[in-house]
Amino acid sequence: MSNNVQSNNLPLSGVARDGWSTETEATATCFCGAVQVVVPIVAPGLVNTFVCNCFDCRKVTASMFASNFTIDNSYLKFVRGEDNLTRWGNNKTPTSRTEMTNGFCKTCGTLMYRRSEVFPNQSYMRIGTVDDFNLHETKLKPEVEIFTDNRVGWWHGVDGAKAISGALTSASK
Hints:
Metal Binding Protein, Guanine Nucleotide Exchange Factor, Chain A; Mss4-like_sf; mainly beta; three-stranded antiparallel β-sheet; single chain; globular; about 30% strand; metal-binding; CENP-V/GFA domain-containing protein; lyase
């Protein structure tokens, strides 16, 4: 951690109490605290932020959409628990029909990331795992919403986000 660490005033959520953030990175922790990583919250490590309404994201998150941020894997640092992740892959993704691997905490089941064959050097992290909830409203606020054609009727999307009816591609970032 750097000298500019913010750790007080983080909301009490889950079991772990050692989350922190700086101007350039933050911790993301599973609900039970067994898995914790440090992620970038600025470019070039932070690639993008987005909400996904695809049917796979709806199912894997047990919600109507997933709020995500994409990072370059070379910036991902495990603090603890890499050996406590279990991975499961789905090779029938809605659009690309390629492998999407999910990394879950073995203890509590928190989905920490998804990885795609299409972008093998990136991880799709869950915004809700980031310990500093202020970042959810600022640096990690979704800038794009994808698969808007699959959005449930009672939700009207992210204010100010670019709406895309299909998948996020390098051209649509």
